[in-house]
Amino acid sequence: MYGFAFMLFGGIAKKIFKNSFKGLKKTIKSANMKISIYEYISMILFTLFLITVFFLGIFFALYYYFHLNVLFLIILPIILLITLIILYLYPGFVTSNRRRDIESKLAYSITYMTAMAEAGVAPISIFENIAKSPLYGEITEEAKNIVTESKIFGKDIVTVLADYSFITPSKKFGDLLQGIVATIRSGGDLNVYLRNKADGIMFDYREIRKEFTDTLGIYSEIFISFIFLILLLIVTISIFKLFSAQKIGPFTFDDVLNILTYIVVPGFSILFILLLDAIYPEE
């Protein structure tokens, strides 16, 4: 799809957006999407074009048969704007997910690197072995890119690591790469550096787990207090309902009970689950 979109809109993308979207360009690289900024912009333009054609086709069909109000066309720019925002932000979501995956497996991958460095394995071979292992998730993908740049394109491994330290979505992984580069260039002991780095990463990981446990306790208390408050409110309203037929504003007592039971409680529970998922340190 990217190729077809680029064939149609690549020229427009290059002319109009030649010096724009520099931040998006870096984000696409960090997301490991393996496409150029112009290919992605072409895909965005192609998607907006398809939505416009489809929407207008539906509109004119409905207008012809059911005399649809012309004001319905106002929905089109809203749909296009929402689509544009989603597509613009999508690489950022991918980058964020990659960052979380990398940092969740960083401690274990460094331990593996340390073991290979102790055995005298060369830096390029260390990343080749990481690239062959599916255990390290997105770190494996980063290692594949590093090996490809060095082996296929003939770049020096130190230069490649230095470049990728700025491309990777994880600052911690970038710091690791920069440390490896500095150690190699200064003639230091890579084994010692990796061992110290592994100890530091493991300490940080344990601290993050401890902070999450403390935070979870606080959030749990808030959740339980909120549910208790809602249940108390439901009981109170149910009692008032037995002795009064009055309304609470425009709502009857039954309306309020239904809103609390079927909207407020489930909605708050879903938000609580999403919050836990966002702050939970990945294994």
What do you see in this structure?
With 283 residues, the protein is mainly alpha-helical. The chain has three domains: 2-98, no CATH class; 100-203; 207-279. The chain is 82% helix and 0% strand. The chain contains ten helices and no strands. The two termini are 34 Å apart.
- The helix/strand class is mainly alpha
Biggest β-sheet, characterized?
none
Termini separation (Å)? 34 Å
Number of helices: 10
Number of domains: 3
Binned, the helix content reads: over 70%
How large is the share of residues in beta strands?
under 5%
- Series of secondary-structure elements, N-terminal to C-terminal: HHHHHHHHHH
Give the strand tally.
0
Question: What does the overall shape look like?
Answer: flat
Could you tell me the mean pLDDT? 85
Question: Rg, please?
Answer: 27 Å
Low-confidence stretches: none
Concise overview:
With 283 residues, this protein is mainly alpha-helical.
Short key terms for the protein model shown above:
single chain, 283 residues, flat, mainly alpha, 3 domains
